[in-house]
Every structure is written in structure tokens, then in C-alpha cells.
Write a structure and sequence with these properties.
Number of domains: 1
Membrane topology: Multi-pass membrane protein
Enzyme class: hydrolase
Low-confidence stretches: none
Helix content: over 70%
Family: Belongs to the RNase K family.
Distance between the termini: 13 Å
Order of helices and strands: HHH
Pfam family, one: V-ATPase_su_f
Strand content: under 5%
Mean pLDDT: 86
Radius of gyration: 21 Å
Main location: membrane
Length: 101
């Protein structure tokens, strides 16, 4: 029988902890980028043309903020998937403990 178990119990538990932390952090970052937090301006990928040559500079900056916000939410979704994988590995490890050899 093929086993889907590929991580040990400690690695799977570590994966869950890191996934939970990553999801919380990235969702908060996504929310703060979505409300156009001025503190995060250094993380917005803009050029001088975006500021000086655009007739409506705030709109362009807001679009860039929202783009980074969406990227944070996508990364949080990936962390959720990896957390689910780690949770499945924990369950498989628990099941393996109770199996008769």
C-alpha cells in the first residue's frame, strides 16, 4: 500500500505553526496595504514615472497598493494550503502510531 506520509511528526507540527504565523501576518499586511498605510510606502513597487509623469498620481499609487495587497492575500492562501498539508501529515503520523505492524 502506498503511503502519503512524507513528513515526520515534528516537521509537520512545525509546518502548522509556520503556516498559522504566515497566514496571520500576510492577512494583516494585506489589510494594511488595502487601506493605503503610509508606513508601508517603501514596499510599494513604484518608479519616478508613476509619481511625476502621471496626471493623477494618487490613483496610480493606490492601484499599486492594492496590487501588493492582493499579492499578500494570495500568499496567505498558499500558506493555508501548506498548513492543510501539514495538518494532514500530523493526522497520518497519529494514525501510523496506532497501526499494528
Amino acid at each position: 500500500m502506498v503511503s502519503l506520509l512524507c513528513c515526520g511528526p515534528k516537521l509537520a507540527a512545525c509546518g502548522i505553526v509556520i503556516s498559522v504565523w504566515g497566514v496571520i501576518m500576510l492577512i494583516l499586511l494585506g489589510v494594511f496595504f488595502n487601506v493605503h498605510s503610509a508606513v508601508l510606502i517603501e514596499d510599494v513597487p513604484f518608479t519616478e514615472e508613476d509619481i511625476f509623469e502621471d496626471p493623477n498620481p494618487p490613483a496610480k499609487m493606490y492601484r499599486l497598493y492594492e496590487q501588493v495587497s492582493y499579492n499578500c492575500f494570495i500568499a496567505a492562501a498558499i500558506y493555508i494550503v501548506l498548513g492543510g498539508f501539514s495538518f494532514c501529515q500530523v493526522r497520518l503520523n497519529k494514525r501510523k502510531e496506532y497501526m499494528v505492524r
